[in-house]
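Following up on my earlier message about iron/sulfur cluster. Here are the inputs again, as you asked, copied directly from the submission form:
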Amino acid sequence: MAYVIAEPCIGIKDSACVDACPVDCIHPKKDEEKFESVEMLYIDPVECIDCGACVPVCPVSAIFAADDLPEKWSDFTQKNAAFFGR
Ligand code: SF4
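Thanks, got it. Here's what our run produced:
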């Protein structure tokens, strides 16, 4: 299991989650090349340790444990993984 970033992040890319993540698995970061071109941020499902630290810092409540991801956003599990070629 991993945490998943869903639709509310689109167009926001606040990045507070990036600073909160202890294993640096949320990308792209503001200083990374892809940051400007992506519509949202993504969590690497292989690197995520399920700590939950990113959830409360997101200003738009876009992050969910995979088991708690609302059904309407179920495709975001794959979208997050795909960004990392998982
Ligand atoms: Fe990073 Fe923890 Fe959030 Fe996973 S749950 S993305 S390890 S802060």
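One observation from looking it over: Residues 76-83 form the longest helix (8 residues). Hope that helps, and feel free to reply on this thread.
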